[in-house]
């Protein structure tokens, strides 16, 4: 009310500040800079370019899926199966090719189809039944976790996948998913480049493409979105499939970097993806957030997990530190959001 | 099903470009000519704290199953990493009136009640893998496993003899008593030992954390890992950090056996999980059948057994069969 009657000259400044603060990644960016400077000060071995790229690599293995999970959360849904999805993807590829002795590219494509199918099923079940995605994907999470173990044991007689480094196609797939090159004294893993590409793609989609508007719309309010003609079902299923595509991608990286996979791995990573997105300013309720924020969230994760080691501290405390980070991020986000909406005239 | 799969495999092989390095077709029959299951009439419950997906427990279970097959025992395998739930599994075995119970005793206090109700019901209990100090107090008859502290100490002594000053002991599971005991054992022989906690559920995280540590502290001369998969990550980390540290590990698997053969890992210390499973079932069989008591009132140690370049050629074939 008072804003409406205020002079136009004084109105412009709070709005501009509000617009800046309303960007989801601002809080995370400030935190990232603070943490970066902090570790630069306390950890001498953090100060090399080699360490920086190790941190980037660690961040990328979380960040690639986190971008997808961030998009999905903006769209108002969760995916708890994202943690074990990479392991499932790698196992499908590895075991199919090992059992039948076929070129690994065949298995990689098959594995992609499998992951997309799981993503589609997640989305379709959520849309069809109206059951919260938290429950549906909790179900797929357990199914994948159990199937990873059961099928691996059945096929290989052990709970880790077999050595596939001698099968055709390994070298070329490793180039795509798990190669590295040196830049000065640092090793740059290709996942870092892929990560940047995926983030850029997601950011562009959200800001510039029509699909981006749809994602914000379905996350904000699915009913109003439907009323103005947004294809809600297609958008949400697409988001689930995006997450499983990125899960597949990370799975391919693990497989071609480590050659064998432990069938029980990946459990717990789904929360890291969600944490990265939330720290990056994505709202759990949907409709708010962006891709850059999720990327910064993953970078904060990589930086703290390794910074503690570079500083020579006891990494037992890492989880506690992560929890504090998460709480702070959520508090900052809530505060910033309130500030931003208060400054907005209407 | 097998002939069909084999036929399908042949068909696919002839269609797709055939590629080496995959599964080796073998005709070996794993059944090994044992008795029909259950022919001795005994039923043994086998309860562990296995977290699903660990290659180690795979072998314990394989050993138990082979013993059951050889001796005609019906085996009921169950597992739960949660102490309370493991106690319930023991209790349900008692309720089912099995003839004997073999169980790991990793959390003795939590399992004491369930073991007591088994012994009061007249069901013999043997311990395996963990609980070496407490099994007698709980009322278990025999124990098959290794002493984690002894194993850790012998690793420490061996690397100390090789000149280790500042080893890094990598703990891949939070709050595990047996893993902490191994590192404590190493530290008792090499006082400069430092522990490092990593997230064992994520190979990339293990690799980067180790890489960061090796880059941060160049004085680390040995990396002691407590599980074979972690040692494989350590090899990666060591290359990335171009660290001169040598790698030694607890536990063995097929990949690890190859790495010992090619020299990237110095040695592995094996507590012979297959033997733990096999002996636990066999000892119950002998006790029920013949009243035998193994170990003379003391725990029967299945390790530590060193695997290094000297004996790897003999052991490699066994790892390929997933029995070592």
Automatic annotation (TrEMBL), chain A:
The chain crosses the membrane at residues 26-43, 55-76, 96-121, 133-151, 186-206, 237-255, 267-284, 291-311, 317-336. The keyword Nucleus does not apply. GO terms for cellular component: plasma membrane. It comes from the Bacteria. It is a multi-pass membrane protein. InterPro entries: ABC_transp_permease. It is found in: Cell membrane. Keywords: Cell inner membrane, Cell membrane, Membrane, Sugar transport, Transmembrane, Transmembrane helix, Transport. GO terms for molecular function: transmembrane transporter activity. Part of the binding-protein-dependent transport system for D-xylose. Probably responsible for the translocation of the substrate across the membrane. This is Xylose transport system permease protein XylH. It comes from Actinoplanes cyaneus.
From TrEMBL, chain B:
Residues 45-290 form the Periplasmic binding protein domain. Gene3D superfamilies: 3.40.50.2300. InterPro entries: Bact_Solute-Bind_Prot2, Peripla_BP_I, SBP_2_dom. It comes from the Bacteria. Residues 1-19 form the signal peptide. Pfam families: Peripla_BP_4 (PF13407). GO terms for cellular component: outer membrane-bounded periplasmic space. It is found in: Cell envelope. GO terms for molecular function: carbohydrate binding. Keywords: Signal. Coiled coil: none annotated. Belongs to the bacterial solute-binding protein 2 family. This is Sugar ABC transporter substrate-binding protein. It comes from Actinoplanes cyaneus. The lineage of its organism: Bacteria, Bacillati, Actinomycetota, Actinomycetes, Micromonosporales.
